[in-house]
Amino acid sequence: MTDTSTRPWWAAFGPGLVFAGAAVGVSHLVQSTRAGASFGLAALVVVVLACAVKFPAFRFGPLYAGATGHSLLAAYRRQGRWTLVIFALLTLCTMFTVTAAVTLVTAGIAIPVLGLGPWLAATVGAAHGPLAVSAVLLAGAAILLALGGYPWLDRFIKFVMPVLSVATLAATLLALRHIEWSWAALLPDRTLFTAPGVAFTVALIGWMPSAIDISVWSSLWTVARARQGDGIVHTRGALLDFDAGYAVTLLLALAFVVLGTAVMHGRGIGFENSPPAFATQVIDLYASMLGDWSRPVIGACALLVMISTVVTVVDGFPRVIAALLAQWQAELHGAAAAGEGDRRVYRAAFAVVALGALAILAFGMQSFKGLVDLATTISFLTAPVLAWFNHRAVHGDDVAPALRPGVVLRRWSLAAIAVQAAFAAWFVWTFFVAG
Which of 226, 247, 255, 297 gives 233 a disulfide partner, CB atoms 3.0 to 4.6 angstroms apart? Predict the structure, then answer.
């Protein structure tokens, strides 16, 4: 059911912060920091433009859920089986690399922050430490989600995100005095237009603020949040909740660019290629600029960033797989509507995703930065397809005309799809065809 009346709008709050928890992670801590280190304040413009281009596609997730009471997967099914198939293939192409990337980064941060290095070296060996900690993180997330499901996820993120936001913004305010502000600093230099610069910019945009398939997760979380209460999706609250979460992701992305600029830009510092070494490097650099007292603040901030991402990612992919299977079964049997998935399928999918991610980390991961850039680049290339699916969803017959996007948002969406498609086509041509 949906509701557009005067029911309490705050009843729908929660999925927007869960969205922020999924978005604020590798894209912020790793990619935004690298962007600030490489391009300085000019990276702020890239981050703002990326978030602006993706905004309509992301917002259409809770909008569709609020208008229909169903997830975007129901809309994909209405567009034809081929849409479900394409989304399923895109999910299969990203779920293992994305899970592996976010878990590896989190493990790399946890090792120095929690002082696990000596113990891991003595037990499993330093080289296998990140893999062992990744397995523990996935097991911990499994226990959290198995015991509490979405309600525990909702409560966990509502605790983590405020703490994370305050810690990050406090560190950013302290770093501002180390930056030379000018309009010229916002202009990109020639390094941005080199082949490595373009490749990194593509990777940055791919997950800035997140991959667009998170919009499907967002619609599923919106429906799940409604089931916690009266079973009604409060449209106004769902959209306000999303807008607040999106604003948080943008603000924190800008903060991490500023931090990267303050501590690394123009200093000739290269990024370490192993997760623990990268985490230690970033924390040490912040401490050298802000003082040793800031070390636990930065460490806790970074760890909270990534824990929130791991928990939401390992919930999102299995939730989508369960819902996809439910939609497919309903399509095959000619059912008018489908549920959002069986918990048994969810648990089985969780196991497959976790084991697949660990397999990548154990046998296929040669480069930390390479894994992150691969996952983010795949998300970049699939963005225009998913944005088009979402645009069609909210303009379908099952969405009441009064609840469809207005003229400005509709044109914004179409322009964003065109920009993403053109940029993706140019990138493929330049780096894979002509190159």
Answer: 226
